Amino acid sequence: MISVNDFKTGLTIDVDGDLFTVIDFQHVKPGKGAAFVRSKLKNLRNGNTVERTFRAGENVSRAHIENRQMQYLYASGKEHTFMDTETFDQINLDEKQIEWELKFLQENMNMNIMSYQGEILGINLPNSVDLKVVETEPGIKGNTATGATKNAKLETGLNVQVPLFINEGDVLTIDTREGRYVSRA
After folding, report:
1. For the chain, what is the mean pLDDT?
2. Which of 16, 120, 140, 177 has the most Cβ atoms closer than 10 angstroms to its Cβ?
3. Which residues neighbour 158 within 8 Å (Cβ) at sequence distance 6 or greater?
4. Cα–Cα distance, 56 to 122 (Å, whole number)
């Protein structure tokens, strides 16, 4: 058990049988009434974000999430196969579990798989990945005064807005948290 007064960003807790990660929290001491902790929590099972208020000093269960280093091997229909890099055990994840992460996954890519008591919760991608541009329009010379952008399709099927100087074949660094262009690799 952990007190809500000890909340930290990134802490994983179990509230009423659901697993949450603390995204944000604020200790509030109103002039009248008891103190409380206002928090923003992300559900690890379905990805929803909820706001929840706890009384100061209230205790919640701490959830110990296991992170295992795994390598993405291949896709077979709607199943995606990952291999543990130490034990060589393989697991299959349905594409519904990793819908957002599929936009950034490449074969033989290493990442951490989160699990809780044997239940696979999802994938922890690196903050950025390098992906190749497979389709984009040519940039129009002289149209750069306003910081104009154009659409580019990447090797994983992800579409991002990029500056006009990006061409097909360029390798770009993409932020996996927001799915946006960062720079040329």
Report:
1. 87
2. 120
3. 103, 104, 131, 174, 179
4. 31
